[in-house]
Design a protein that fits this description.
Elements (H helix, E strand, L loop, with lengths): L2 H16 L3 H5 L15 H14 L13 H12 L2 H22 L8 H21 L8 H14 L2 H7 L26
Helix pairs in contact: 1-7, 3-4, 3-7, 4-7, 5-6, 5-7, 6-7
Amino acid sequence: MNRRDAISRVGLLLGGTVIGAEFFISGCKSGSSVNTDDLASADTTAFLDEVGETIFPETKTPGAKAAKVGAFMALMVKDCYTADDQKIFKKGISDLDEACNKKYGKKFMQADAKQRTELLTGLDKEAKDYSKSKKPEDANHYFTMMKQLTILGYFTSEVGATKALRYLPVPGKYDGNYPYKKGDKAWALS
């Protein structure tokens, strides 16, 4: 892989988290009309951590659970999503659990890693197909929101920025022709 391809892929990965994330455009809103207190419960946070861990499992670098993406997702949905998106996200949690129960006969938390990966891969395909035919006024797909928040939460956490990406706390000068070796980590923003 050459440097241009690596930068392009990282740009797609990180840029994809911003597209469709309305909280960046409209800012955080206070006093939503949806009760989101249950999102901060230990069970829901653990569920969201497992969804995140399935998307970003622990390998040579810590996974999404180490970055505490479940708590991050709950906070972002509660503080920054519109009331309609909050409802979709909350319903999406139960929809994901029901989809797992329908496919494997067990809840998501009881499924093994392979089953979780297969389920989320199918949901990702479903969400991508939905977004292709989605009109601007149509609701967002719940799995798209979960995936975007997982990516955003992971790469903006200390764990993601320092362990998964290369991080310099005090950056040097800009060098647009810095050599890239195959397998190097992408740079974190400082």
